[in-house]
C-alpha cells in the first residue's frame, strides 16, 4: 500500500439479494488527514443483510458491507496528529459528516443536519461510493477513527463499533444505572451487548425474548431476570415494571403490549429497525405519560467513551470468528438467529 490510490481485495454483493463474492475495490490515496488501516476483523451486523438485500431501500452496488471494523494503522497522512503507525483503531458506521452544523459541532455526527457519510452504501463528498469493512484495508479521515484500548482484543472489539455503541448511547442518554430497571428485548448481537453494558452501569436487567432457549446465556451475561414474550403471562406479571425498555429486534413488535410494561414516565427505545411499518394505539402512551423513542449509533466522542468503558469493564462481544468465504452462510444463520452472538470475519482470509 502506498499514498497512491490502489485496489484491495474485498467481498461484495454485486447486486441486491445476490450472494457476496470475492472481488477488488478501489481505495483512495492517503490524504492530509487520513489514516490507512489494515483491517484485521470485521463484524457482521444485521443491517449489512438489510442493505445488501435492499431491505431498507435501493442500495448502491456493488456493495461491500461492514461497519464494525477493527485494525491497525499502517500509514498516516502528513497532517495526522491523533494516530501513529501501529495504533489499534476502529471505524464504525460513519466516515464523514459536514462537521459544521450544530449537531456535528456538539459531537453528534450521527445526527448531522446535512447527512452523515456512511461507511458503505453511500456516496462521499466527491460523489464516489463508499465501501465497508469486508476488505483488507480502508482509508479513513482521522476525525472518524477511534482508538481501541489495549484492554480489548481486536476480534471482540470489532462488533462494539456498531452493536456496542448502538446500545450504549441510549442506555447512557436515558440514565441506566443503579435503581433503574431496564428490559432488553431480544438477545442477539445488539441485545447481548445491551445486557452486558446495562449491568455494568449498575441497572437491574431483564431479558425479554421469544423463548427461554437462551436463558442461561442471558443470566450469565448479567441479566437478573429472563422472560419469554411468547407467554401471555409475562405481560401480566411484568405490567408497570420497567423504567426503560431497549428493543433490539428488527421485526415489528406489538408495541402496545410492550408499552404496558413501563412504569409511569417510562421510555421504550427502539434501536432495531424493522423493514415493515409498525402500528400503535396512542392511548398506550397517554396513559402513564410514557414515551416511545428511537436511537441510532453515537457520535465519535461517545463511541470512544463506549470503547473505554467496555475496556475498563472487560466487555467484549461474544463472537464466532469465520472465514470470508463463509459470509453467505453466516447471513443465513443470522436470519435464523443461529449465532451467539456476533459473527466476525477474519479479514486475513479474504
From TrEMBL:
Name the UniProt key words of this record, in alphabetical order: Metal-binding, Oxidoreductase, Zinc
Q: Which InterPro entries does the record match to this protein?
A: ADH-like_C, ADH-like_N, ADH_Zn_CS, CAD-like, ER, GroES-like_sf, NAD(P)-bd_dom_sf
Q: Which domain of life is it from?
A: Bacteria
Cofactor field: Zn(2+)
Drop me one GO molecular function for this one: alcohol dehydrogenase (NADP+) activity
Tell me the enzyme class: oxidoreductase
State which Enzyme Commission number(s) the record gives: 1.1.1.2
Recorded catalytic reaction(s): these are: a primary alcohol + NADP(+) = an aldehyde + NADPH + H(+)
Family stated for the protein in its record:
Belongs to the zinc-containing alcohol dehydrogenase family.
Q: What is this protein called?
A: alcohol dehydrogenase (NADP(+))
Taxonomic lineage is: Bacteria, Bacillati, Actinomycetota, Actinomycetes, Kitasatosporales
